[in-house]
Q: What sequence folds into this?
C-alpha cells in the first residue's frame, strides 16, 4: 500500500518534466534564434542584399557573408559567413567566441551582452540553416590594398 502511494506520487511529480520534453525545446530555441537574428540586425551586414531588399530575403539565404569590405582606421574587415564559421564550432566554443572583441563595424557588444540562452538559440538556428557559400576574406591592416569593393567609413566635412 505504502509502495503504491510512492509510485503514484513519483508519476505525478515527474509528469511536468515529461511534458516539457514532449514540447520539443530544440525547435523552440531555433525559432527564438531566428527571431533574435532578425531583430538584432545581424542580416544587415552578414546577408548580401538584405538592406536593398528591405529585409525580404528568405531565411534560407541569410548569413552567408558579404564580400564587400568595410574600410576605416582599423583597416578593411568583412562580415563573415556565419553559417560556415559556426558549423566548425561546438556550442561551448560558440559561447566563448561570441563574446570576443571584433573589428568595426561589427557590434560585438550585442553578442557580449547577450544571455547564454539567447546565444545558444542563435547557434541552434544558424546550425539548422546548414552550410552555404564560402569563407569571406580575412581582415587586413590599414593601408593594405584589397581586390574587393569597399565601403569607406570615413567622416567627411559637410
Ligand atoms: C554593421 C555590420 C555588422 C552587423 C550589424 C553585425 N556584424 Fe558580425 N561582423 C561584421 C564584421 C565586419 C565582422 C568581421 C570583424 C573582424 O574581422 O574582426 C563581423 C564578425 C562577426 C563574427 C566573428 C566572425 C566569425 O567568423 O564568426 C560573428 C560571430 C558575428 N559577426 C556575428 C554577428 C551577429 C550574431 C550579429 C547580430 C547580432 C552581427 N554579427 C551583426 C559586421 C557586422
A:
Amino acid at each position: 500500500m505504502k509502495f503504491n502511494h510512492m509510485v503514484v506520487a513519483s508519476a505525478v511529480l515527474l509528469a511536468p518534466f515529461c511534458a516539457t520534453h514532449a514540447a520539443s525545446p530544440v525547435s523552440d530555441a531555433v525559432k527564438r534564434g531566428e527571431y533574435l537574428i532578425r531583430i538584432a540586425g545581424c542580416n544587415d551586414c552578414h546577408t548580401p542584399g538584405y538592406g536593398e531588399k528591405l529585409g525580404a530575403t528568405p531565411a534560407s539565404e541569410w548569413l552567408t557573408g558579404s564580400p564587400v569590405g568595410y574600410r576605416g582606421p582599423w583597416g578593411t574587415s568583412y562580415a563573415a559567413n556565419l553559417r560556415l564559421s559556426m558549423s566548425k564550432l561546438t556550442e561551448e566554443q560558440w559561447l566563448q567566441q561570441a563574446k570576443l572583441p571584433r573589428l568595426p563595424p561589427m557590434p560585438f557588444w550585442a553578442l557580449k551582452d547577450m544571455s547564454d540562452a539567447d546565444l545558444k538559440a542563435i547557434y541552434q538556428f544558424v546550425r539548422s540553416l546548414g552550410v552555404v557559400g564560402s569563407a569571406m576574406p580575412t581582415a587586413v591592416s590599414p593601408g593594405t590594398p584589397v581586390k574587393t569593393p569597399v565601403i569607406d567609413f570615413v567622416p567627411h566635412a559637410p
Remarks:
- Confidence is low (pLDDT under 50) at residues 11-19.
- The first strand starts at residue 69 and ends at 72.
